[in-house]
Design brief:
8 helices, 19% strand, alpha+beta, 277 residues, three-stranded antiparallel sheet, seven-stranded antiparallel sheet, single chain
């Protein structure tokens, strides 16, 4: 397999410097806005479908929902995960045997509240002992984000913070909140932009004061030693797997099924159900 950096404009050092430093990087304008518009329509239809399935859509706070879906339900999935920047980021941080283990979307609707500061999961030993990131989360907005939409807010550099004994290893104690508020940066991506971050970098969704939902695609990727895939049911039909180019197929360890079934989620995060005040 050829490296993503052979003749590439994307430098491994710059990628790793951003993700090991601030904990988030982005490629503005990686895709045409029309791709994001199609993604928006598909996500909203999938959300309406998921609401009819018990466990199909999980609350992540007031008027905020998370849904996992199958890659083949999103027409742009192959184009997104085969983009040279996506491949270069995964290879630089996670190695050439990276695995796409999660495909879903988060939607804060009007009246969604500020979330508490959190990580997406507890810090693994690879990070605490090895000082290494072994997973990434990629995000793509489907609208041009404005401040009133309740943008994603992140505290750069906090992927290395230690706070023991907190719920699920995710929620820092209140005495650390001023640290995150002081470092907080609100992100205002536009249609066609893509970002990558460490899910350990402390972050939160903010209050949506607009009249519009703000859907965001989420793609989770693991290094070979990470175990996040155990929490997700990534499905694909054999025909879909066969249709994919190797740069996608080789990194998609999906459960092969004869027919897709609704993704029932069980990963309720109680700490996100109460807004932060």
């Amino acid at each position: 397999m050829a490296s993503a950096f052979a003749g590439s404009a994307y430098e491994a050092g710059e990628i790793m410097g951003g993700l090991y430093g601030e904990g988030i990087i982005a490629h503005p304008g990686a895709f045409p806005a029309a791709l994001a518009d199609t993604l928006h329509a598909e996500i909203m239809a999938l959300f309406a479908e998921a609401r009819t399935v018990p466990g199909g859509a999980l609350a992540r706070g007031p008027e905020r929902w998370y849904v996992e879906t199958q890659p083949e339900r999103l027409s742009a999935f192959p184009a997104i995960v085969s983009h040279p920047w996506f491949v270069a980021v995964c290879e630089a941080v996670l190695g050439r045997d990276y695995r796409i283990i999660e495909v879903g979307f988060d939607i804060p609707f009007p009246s969604a509240a500020d979330q508490p500061w959190h990580r997406d999961f507890a810090v693994p030993e690879a990070t605490t002992a090895g000082r290494r990131l072994n997973s990434l989360a990629f995000n793509m907005t489907t609208i041009d984000t404005r401040p009133e939409h309740g943008p994603f807010e992140i505290a750069p550099g906090t992927q290395w913070d230690v706070f023991d004994g907190c719920p699920k290893g995710m929620f820092p104690p209140a005495d650390l909140w001023p640290r995150y508020a002081a470092r907080a940066v609100k992100k205002l991506p536009r249609r066609g932009d893509i970002s990558a971050r460490s899910a350990l970098t402390v972050h939160r969704g903010t209050a949506n004061r607009s009249a519009e939902p703000r859907p965001v695609l989420v793609i989770g990727v693991d290094a070979p030693d990470a175990t996040n895939g155990a929490h997700h049911d990534l499905q694909a039909t054999a025909a879909y797997i066969d249709s994919l180019p190797p740069v996608v197929r080789d990194h998609l360890p999906a459960r092969v099924v004869d027919a897709l079934t609704p993704v029932v989620q069980n990963h309720v995060i109680d700490g996100l159900l109460t807004p932060a005040y």
